[in-house]
Amino acid sequence: MSPSIIIVLAVLTGVTGSPSVATSPAAVDATAHPNSVVEETEIFGWQQVSVEKEAEEDAMATGELNPNHYPAQRAAKVVQHYLNVQYGSPFRLFGLHKVHSGNAEDVADSGRKYQLEISVQEIINNASDNKQVKFDCHVLLHEMVSQEIIHWKLLFTWSPPDGVKVLQMEKLPHCHDCKVPPNTN
Question: The Cystatin LXN-type domain covers which part of the protein (predicted)?
Answer without folding.
Answer: 61-180
